[in-house]
Amino acid sequence: MLAPIAAEITESSPLFKARMAGVFWLLTIITGMFAFIAGGRFIVTGDAATTAANIINHQLLFRLAFISNLVATACYLAVTLFVYQLLKPVNRTVAAFVVFFSLMGCATGLVSSLLFQAPLDLLSGAPYLSIFTAAQVQAWALTILTLSLRLNDIGMVFFGFHVLSIGYLIRRSTFLPRILGALLFVAGICYLTNSFANFLDVSFKTYLLPFVALGGLLGEGSLTGWLLVKGVNAQRWNEQATVIR
């Protein structure tokens, strides 16, 4: 079933590929931002009881954050497919790495989403959990949420390399502005810096979030806007695709 879809995308015009990549990238940004902002409201570092109360008192928002994560992942898989088809005329090997890094990031994100959902089941008050004290269950819920955040950091390492690879391909292309590739380099470096700052638990990690958000907006946001509004130079895309063939 997927083979005919992939074949149709392959044969479609470069402008269609660009616009579809832009559409799904925009959906990814919207749903991903909602999941990040909504999900971040629940965790109170070092306070398992308050974190548990936040989840129990706002279950609908918690579930919506979980669903938004799943939608964002699905949309990004679509982005990956269209971006690969759009950029493979530049360098097939690097384009394959773009797909690899994206798939690894998405897989890590799915596991992180599953862990994010788990505390809601732990705090549900199911009879089989009655052998544990409320404090124990709350501590497990916070621990699992923290593990979910660490998996997000791992996923952002893969997405950092994914964005850097796309930036490289755009810089080597003739059908997209090179400045977009440079902005993606900035975004990728921001993602990697933030993740490794969290891994190393450096003191300045709490100040990095605004810079990461700005880097992502400049990089992924600018490329998304360009793909939606301008697309690509179809003539130059066809010329570069002909050379690769």
Description:
Helices cover 82% and strands 0% of the residues. The chain has helices at 2-11, 14-40, 48-57, 59-87, 92-122, 134-172, 178-200, 209-229, 234-244. By secondary structure, it is mainly α. Helix 3 (48-57) packs across helix 6 (134-172) and helix 4 packs antiparallel against helix 5. It has nine helices and no strands. The protein is elongated, with a radius of gyration of 20 Å. The longest helix has 39 residues, at 134-172. The mean pLDDT is 89. The protein has one domain (2-239).
Descriptors:
9 helices; 0% strand; mainly alpha; 245 residues
Give the termini separation: 26 Å
Domain module tally: 1
Summed over residues and divided by their number, the pLDDT gives a mean of 89
Q: Helix/strand-derived class?
A: mainly alpha
- Stretches where pLDDT is under 50 for at least 5 consecutive residues are none
What's a quick, concise take on this entry?
The protein has helices at 2-11, 14-40, 48-57, 59-87, 92-122, 134-172, 178-200, 209-229, 234-244. It is an all-alpha fold and 245 residues long. The model has no long low-confidence stretch (mean pLDDT 89).
List the helices and strands and how they pair.
Elements lengths: L1 H10 L2 H27 L7 H10 L1 H29 L4 H31 L11 H39 L5 H23 L8 H21 L4 H11 L1
Helix pairs in contact: 2-4, 2-8, 3-6, 4-5, 5-6, 6-7, 7-8
